[in-house]
Structures are given as C-alpha cells and as structure tokens.
Amino acid sequence: MKQAPAIFLLGPTAAGKSDIAVGLAQRFGAEIVSIDSALIYRGMNVGTAKPDATVRARVAHHLIDIVEPTEHYSAGQFRRDALAAMRHITAHGSIPLIVGGTMMYYKALTQGLHELPQADARLRAQLEARARAEGWPALHAELARVDAASAQRLPPTDAQRIQRALEIFYTTGTPWSVLVAQARAQPLPYRATACALAPRDGERARLHERIAQRFDAMLAAGLVQEVIALRRRYALSAALPSMRCVGYRQVWEHLEGAYTQSELREKGIAATRQLAKRQLTWLRSLPAVARFDCFASDVEPQLEAHLQRFLQW
Question: Which of 27, 98, 222, 299 is deepest in the core (most CB within 10 A)?
C-alpha cells in the first residue's frame, strides 16, 4: 500500500517560511504542522511571529499554543503529538505540511529518539541553583568531564541543553551522547519530501537585514509589553525553556536591568542571527533536501512545481 505523502518546509528564522507555507497549503489542500519550539507556548505571540487568527482560519495549524510558558515540552512529546496530528490530517484526505526550523524536533520526527528519562524537577532545580551561583560555563566544564561528546557540540551558554545533558547523566549514569547513539531508527511512516528555504551563498547579509527588520517590528508590536504581561500572569523564571527562546531571553534580561532598550535591540538581533547561523549549518548537513532561494522572486512557483512532481509520483 502506497504511503500517504507529507511535505517538510524547513529553513532559518526570517526566511519567509510561514507566509509561503500558507500559500502552499491552500494550493495543495494541506494543513500545517508547526515544527517550532517557540510556537508551542500560549501567550507568546509577538516574539514568535505566531500566525494570527485570520491566517489560522484560512489554513488549519497544529501544535501551536499547546503548553503553558511554565511547562517543559520534550522532543519525544513533540514526536508523539506531531505523528498524531499527521494521522488526523491524512485521515480526512489532507496533506501534512510540516513547517519550521527546530532541528531537534525535525530529527525526532524523521528518525525517532531514544526513550530518555523524564525531567526530574528536583535535580533540575539543583542544577539551576548551581548555575546561578557558578555560571553555565562551569556546568559546561562539568559536562565535558562526564559526557565529552555532548559538551563538544554545545556552546557554554546553551543552558537548556547543558542542563538536560547533566540531568540525563545523573539520572541514568550514561552520557546523553551514548544514549542517542544507541537509539534505534524509527522511520517516518510517510512518503515525505523535504524542502528548505535559505539564502544563496553570499547573500546571508540580506537575511541579516530581514532579521533586524523583523526584530524591530516585534519591538514596535509590543514584545517588551508581552513579556511584562507574561511575568504578571505566570510564575516564570529565566531558566524556563520558554524564557530562553530568542528574543524573550533578551527582553527578560533587559527587564532585570542587565542592559538598556537600545542594547536590547542589538542583543536580540545578534541572538537571532546566531540562531539562523546554526539553522543554516544544520540544513547543509541534511541529505536529500531540495534547497530554494528564499529571496528569489519566483520561489513560490518553484516550490509549487517541485511539490506537484512529488505528489504525482
């Protein structure tokens, strides 16, 4: 029996994925499944460029607004939820269009994950307290002693993953890198094609310009006010994954007096550029991904033609 089709639209932040995805969904009768680790949070709208109610009324979106900003959400949970959403979409004759740029989520969905231990709230709190006292680079050095492979691929400032890697080691006695290497492949039960929107070589400066414009638009739309409202509504901390999201982390630090409004803008843009750089590096490592110039005037017709051929196989 022929497998149902699924389409992936990947790319760095600010590449224009969301707008193009809506057009493609309407063209091919698809529903969008978000593969974005920031869009999952309720109340975080401005800083995530979340599609508004009008857009979501035109095209169904899944895995948006599914957890509170105080909650943790793992890649394993994402895989289960994404597969459930995809089954729901194909059950009524539509095509899943999976859109975003969260590397870990993409890998979890297409390759599967080792069954890692659940978060340990007590151990996590202990690690966070140590980080406040010693700094995350000190915990990164500790990770290097117990799991050199994980430490090598994580920067000393990646608090969320350093914490998770140490949590896994102290819970299981086995390095995270070893557990990942032992994971059994869990192929995606769909006939899938993956497309990537990205700037051509030598045109990254154009993406940087778009990132700056996008962050300025977020500030003008009330990003700082959104974080203030979230802090009033929820029992948040800087250590939560939601508040480590690009943009939100910088606003949090600004509200804590770490730097001025102008410095907030500079740091927010710089952090977004770093995120885009990591995403582009990841995309180059993926096999069998069709790349499209995100700045090409005819990029949408190119994508449509590519997908039309795929769906006719």
Answer: 98
Q: How many Cα atoms occupy the beta-carbon half-sphere of 274 within 13 Å?
A: 12
Are both 108 and 133 inside the same structural domain? no
Overall domain count for the chain: 2
Q: How far, in Å, CA of 112 to CA of 224, rounded?
A: 37
Distance CA 244, CA 128 (A): 13
Residues 130 and 193 in one domain: no
279 and 221, same structural domain? yes
Of the residues 149, 182, 215, the one at which a domain ends: 182
Q: How far is CA 24 from each of CA 85, 200, 301, 302, 312, rounded to the nearest angstrom?
A: 18, 22, 10, 11, 16
Segments forming the whole domain that contains residue 159: 121-182
pTM (predicted TM-score): 0.83
- 209 and 178 in a common domain: no
Judge if 200 and 298 occupy the same domain. Answer: yes
**Cβ atoms 109, 7 nearer than 8 A:** no
**Rounded CA separation 164/38 (Å):** 18
